[in-house]
């Protein structure tokens, strides 16, 4: 096995060295580490080049994570690919786990991620919650019927090159974050294998893209991303003879958790003109009934949260949203 670890970095001098160290420490495979610096203005490039010929270092003018990932992938020679975020850390055993479970039909092996603090301190929090770990067959059914399945973001996935060759270079039809396209398309190209172990450390440090209270309109941004992923999934699925019904988007309980705050907090910025609180009431009830990709207990909690958020005055609704998104 040869594993290419591609790290796209932008102004993460504080973290990128640790990400590189964790990639170089992976055992059980030939490791190729490719670091693409996306026009950083801090000391990132000095950190990256300090590794000498232990890494393939590429520097480009700032063009975004998608373009940086395209550049890194074009240089990769591994038969398995890991896109490691520059602020995350990977466990040394991840290649061994891939080899343990992968088959010729596998296009993606996905893991749990463990949240750690800015200095790497343990938090005891893991995600996604696989309850139980889904089969590849279940994942494909959910991707078609619910437009979603339990999956970690970028660093929590290792991809077969045979699958990625069908997608790269990535265009912007699924947004500027590569994992949006890669996790969305995977069930239509092969088996997605789930390993119920936290083999990646997801660093939470306040500047994460997932901090949805950093500025106004980020919930609307996530809804737009979710809808773009849905349209991308429909298009990609058709290329392999699979139809995704339009109704599956409204059943997507993950996107619904962003639609509710978007309509509640910034209705003028909400990207779906047909959406409103009445539609959200119907969708939250229907989704919690049919979204069997999530455990019943969690669905009930989200149903209560969604209904309370929709009927509460703005100050209370905002508190409920902040509690849900840990802000």
Provide keyphrases for this structure:
327 residues; alpha/beta; Spore Coat Polysaccharide Biosynthesis Protein SpsA, Chain A; 42% helix; hexosyltransferase activity; Nucleotide-diphossugar_trans; Glyco_trans_2-like; transferase; Glycosyl transferase family 2
Task: Tell me what you see in this structure.
42% of the residues lie in helices and 19% in strands. The mean pLDDT is 94. Strands 1, 2, 3, 4, 5, 6, 7, 8 and 9 form a 9-stranded mixed beta sheet that branches. Helix 8 runs antiparallel to helix 10, helix 11 packs antiparallel against helix 12 and helix 12 runs antiparallel to helix 13. The protein has 2 domains: 202 residues, Alpha-Beta Complex (Spore Coat Polysaccharide Biosynthesis Protein SpsA, Chain A), CATH 3.90.550.10; 107 residues, no CATH class. The N and C termini lie far apart (41 Å). The longest helix has 22 residues. The protein is an alpha/beta fold. It holds the Pfam family Glycos_transf_2. Keywords: Transferase. One of its GO terms (molecular function) is hexosyltransferase activity.
């Amino acid at each position: 096995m040869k594993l290419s670890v591609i790290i796209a970095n932008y102004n993460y001098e504080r973290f990128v060295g640790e990400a590189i160290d964790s990639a170089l420490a992976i055992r059980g495979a030939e490791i190729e580490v490719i670091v693409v610096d996306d026009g950083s203005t801090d000391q990132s490039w000095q950190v990256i080049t300090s590794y000498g010929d232990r890494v393939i270092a590429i520097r480009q003018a700032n063009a975004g994570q998608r373009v940086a990932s395209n550049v890194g992938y074009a240089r990769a020679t591994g038969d398995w690919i890991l896109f490691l975020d520059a602020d995350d850390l990977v466990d040394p055993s991840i290649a061994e786990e891939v080899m343990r479970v992968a088959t010729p039909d596998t296009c993606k092996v996905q893991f749990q991620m463990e949240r750690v603090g800015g200095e790497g301190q343990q938090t005891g929090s893991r995600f996604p919650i696989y309850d139980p770990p889904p089969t590849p067959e279940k994942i494909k059914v959910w991707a078609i019927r619910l437009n979603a399945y339990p999956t970690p973001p970028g660093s929590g996935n290792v991809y077969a090159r045979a699958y990625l060759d069908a997608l790269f270079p990535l265009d912007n039809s699924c947004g500027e974050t590569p994992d949006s396209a890669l996790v969305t398309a995977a069930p239509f190209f092969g088996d997605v294998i789930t390993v119920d172990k936290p083999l990646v450390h997801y660093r939470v440090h306040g500047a994460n893209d997932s901090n949805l209270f950093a500025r106004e309109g980020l919930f609307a941004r996530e809804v737009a991303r979710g809808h773009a992923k849905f349209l991308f999934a429909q298009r990609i699925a058709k290329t392999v003879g699979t139809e995704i019904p339009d109704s599956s988007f409204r059943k997507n309980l993950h996107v619904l958790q962003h639609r509710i705050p978007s309509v509640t907090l910034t209705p003028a910025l909400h990207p779906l003109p047909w959406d409103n609180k009445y539609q959200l009431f119907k969708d939250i009830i229907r989704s919690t009934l049919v979204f069997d990709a999530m455990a019943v207990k969690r669905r009930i909690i989200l149903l209560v949260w969604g209904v309370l958020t929709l009927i509460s005055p703005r100050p209370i609704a905002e508190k409920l949203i902040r509690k849900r998104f840990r802000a």
